[in-house]
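User: I'm putting together a teaching handout on how multi-component assemblies are represented. Below are the sequence lines for each component of a complex, exactly as they appear in our records. Could you produce the 3D structure of the whole assembly as structure tokens, so the students can see both representations side by side? Please keep the chain order the same as the input.
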Amino acid sequence: MIAWTIYLTFSGAILLLFLPRAFARWTAFFTTLAGLGITIATFFGTDVDLAHFRTIVRVPWFPALGMSYHLAVDGISLVLILVTGIAAVSAVLFSWDVDQRAKEFFFWLLLVVGGSYGVFLSADLFLLFLFYELVIVPKYFLIAIFGSTNKEYGAMKLTLYSFFGGTLVFLGIIAIYSIGGSLDLNQLAGIQFNPRLQSWLFPVLFLGFAVLAGIWPLHTWAPTGHVAAPTAGSMLLAGIVMKLGAYAALRVAILILPQGFEMWRTWIAVLAVIGIVYAAAVALRQRDLKFVIGYSSVSHMGFVLLGFASATVWGVTGSVLQMFSHGVIGALLFAVAGRMIYRRTHTRDLDALAAMNLGRALPFAAFSFVIAAAASMGMPGFSGFAAEITILIGTWKAFPLAVWVTGIGMVLVAAFTLRALKRTFFDVDGGSTAPPGDANQMSALPTQVRSSAEPSIHLPAITLPEKLGAGLLMFATIAVGLYPKILIDRIQPAVETMRFLTK
Amino acid sequence: MSYLDLLRLAAPETIVVVAALAVLTIGLTSSRASIWCPLVAAIGIGAAIVTLLRLPVHANLFGGMLVISPLNSLFKTICLVLALLTLPLMTSEQRGRNSGEYVALLLLGTLGLMLLVGSEELLMIFIGLELLGLSLYVMAAFDKTDLRSAEAGLKYFLFGSTASAFTLFGISLVYGMTGTTALAWIAQKLSIGTVEPLLAVGIVMTLIGFAFKIAVAPFHLWAPDAYQGAPVPSSAFIASGSKVASFVVLGKIVLIGFGPVRGNADWHGMVAGWSPVLAALAAFSILLGNFVALAQINVRRLLAYSAVAHGGYTLLGIIAGGRDGFSATLFYTSIYAVTLIGAFAVVAAVRRETGGDDLQNFSGLASRSPFLAASMSIFLLSLAGLPPLAGFFGKFYLFSATFRAGGNHGLLWLVALALFGSFLSLYYYLIPLRVMFVDQTGSTSQPLKGSTSLLARATVAVLAALVLFFGLMPQSLAAKIVAALG
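Assistant: Of course. Below is the structure of the complete assembly, with chains in the same order as your input.
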């Protein structure tokens, strides 16, 4: 039944083109909602074999080349499909105000969502790559047509990076297919490839996928792309698209080429840790709110790669948990920054925002952002904490030094998150002209607290769709934060059967 | 061998000739030639396809001069279909005087394609090549009011006739060394003797003629001008039918005729023969075509340089050799032809509306004609090799066949180069898409005037549907090609 997420989403996209414009957002909403409904039903159902990537649909496609339309699901894909569903519904809710070329907008949006469902469910390498590449062009249009700051540059950069990764992956897939003689992921995961081959094939394939996961130093598309994208675009990018890369890196590169992974995993850990710390440090100096969040995405995705590199059950479980968690938190952060703030104030400059006293003008936005920021910093009780602590526990055994350095990174994450939070919503000094990040400012100002409770400017109130979307995302991060077992129970069995783990 | 037999086996070709003569007559006599000529031509092509399908499966006349095999019949059909798809482009562009001559030339060109595809004998191949070439030279220069068209025709003619001279010289050397012009016999002779330098010269010179026809660097110089300057249907025909037939024949010549002197194009094991020559041509074309295309501002010129790159990709299958590689090449070139006719059909529509085919003429096309813009993006994205379009599967098939060839991954360098090339190509294919969908300047939201004829729109729709269909159901064509190769 879970396969219907793909069909429904694509049919919704096509249906949308033939309906009058007024129905566009409703069609998109019900399509994504149906996808989420199916996912939740399957998620709580009992008919999924969590531990094994068990086939659900298999139709021969091009038998002579061993291609088949082959879908399968296990605990890991189930969790990622759930986050796709959540991010998709809230992305539509946060795009309720899209008026210009609305049909096109929701068409591209649904293509991204449908392609992502497809990637998470594919059990055939060719099919997986097909869905994976299918997501690229809609992203380009979403950003280039509907985006803001420097949109054409951001869109082109993101597309070229994605396609560059795709090219590496294409080479890897051709090699795997030609040598392994099969495209079936389960079958390939049982083949022992020649170690010499693995030693060069693994980095090609892994790097190809990891570009989309924002691995340092190939991460630069992410901040630029996120900033240029419309709100729903950045929500999908952070919420889903970056996960595609990480998921495929695990499902294809690591599972099929375990020895190659073993040879290279120290390097992956190094890159991951550099990514965590570097991106957090860069985020600390950004003036554009969306850039702050964009770099935080890179930092958080570094955790995912670090968890993979640990090659332990806990590390990998934590990685998948982090993918879910960041999908929800990243989407929420971008929703607040892009829709709630930018659409009303038309600026994302932290100094300009600081002058607006948004904490009073938009209390709901402030509330959502506080939740998202807390979750993003890894406060206990939110999903980010559960995920990051699991990853670090898993990593401790393999790379103790990495955990120490990451600890510094986490302090930086807290620092830039708090800075952004304060400058955006709670900078009571109003039109301070002090440069951002000036540490003295914080201690010097409490005496000047503005006495009036009046918001300094009048902005349109937060609308119902925004509240619903934010509510959905906040619920997800808190629910998983309080009860991470609900996901871990589904992820762990699947991780435990993987062959690359160090004992 | 009675003449009746010959007439029976060459019936499709005969029908095309008769149709060409009929069209010529109608063009001279009828006052409504611009409607009747394409119609008669379409009927003639349809009849030829039907007779093709009713021919015996195997036949061989005059020692390979006319060979009927599943492969030849399949590709004769494909060439006829491509010619048929080119016709509607003409009804819109070429209305006015001389439409009879133009259609007749197209049919004669198609006859050239059929002779090329249907022969396994060098002299007959050369005659087919010349018949095709002479028709195309005139077709390229047909627009007498346009200076660019004259330039296109002249350049095409000068380069083409030089290349023909090379080929003829090459063929004569091969004949001198082996004593025969039939491919099967040449192969037999070559397999026993050693490769002498003179023979190598003959082989290389023969290849040059085909390198010209498929427009691979450094024999591509005519292509940008011919694609840009010639009337749109001529460009489409040069880029589609002519290319498909040339690849079929090139494949047959090197894989059957010159099979024993293949050499080796592996990175660490280059051995002299035709495959390193083709590999060098392919590598050079991929690099040059893609890099130069990055800088183009005219859509037809962009398509021309991308055609150079695609010629390079397509050669990979022939270099890989074997049934696998050759069928991948044939699949790729077929879907490429379909895609390119589609792209040219859209260019023709835009040109008619805006009077040009530079990038700026496409500006805001999405709001003026969503249908044309959507179709154009299907064609361009298929060329870029994005799923779920035909070009994606074509590249997968082609590159994996090349990678597998020889069993030692020696051609990995070519595959990696080709993938790098297709990475570059995405950029310049995205530019027209950006112009169409993102830019809102230019003639803003003026819907295209209704003069895009229904027929032209239907053709575009059929071609776009084909590109999508071959992407989703590649085996419908690929399996046929593999089966035809036997």
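A couple of points students might notice: The two ends of chain A are 36 Å apart (CA to CA). Strands of chain A lie at 54-62, 67-73.
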